[in-house]
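Morning run. Coffee first, then this:
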Amino acid sequence: MQSKEHWDTVYASKSSDHVSWFQPHAKLSLRLIKETGVPADASIIDVGGGASTLVDDLLDSSFSNITVLDLSATAMTAAQQRLGSRACAVQWMEANITEVQLPKNAYDVWHDRAVFHFLISEQERHAYVEQVLRSVRPGGHVIVATFAEDGPTRCSGLPVARYSSEELHDEFGASFTLMQHVKEDHHTPSGALQKFVYCYCRKS
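And here it is:
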């Protein structure tokens, strides 16, 4: 998997609102999380959340039990500085998602926009799915977004995997029921177009 040093360098060399995946507001992610119907005190983890504005949107929507996990402390520092005193309401976790020991059945909602497609080896993807199986409670919600079949083949200098909704769901398997899939056209700060696919599943 890509290294912590790689992502620290990315965020040290660019402001968080100039990286290609930046969104002023994570509208689709927030919509899908709200559509799960979980209460405001539901435990939500944003995997690879780093400097993402999703945490701002969740706090603005009165969600109160949020964990942001990222490889890069530099990315999370950018988010913490942006949030100011509100950063204290969030749990921040610097870790590699394929290696960290997450608590069992801890999360009601697992969200990941643009981490899974960097896992180009079967071993990494298996480790990721095992994390979801362990740490998301039975009946919990899993929202994962990757580059679609017609999305970029590389991002931030690294190769990525691309998925259809069916292929992405297949990576997770029979323990996850596909509830919804959505395509997104993401316009980067530089004006490029990136095609994403979001899959929302329920864990059995």
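The first strand starts at residue 43 and ends at 47. Good start to the day.
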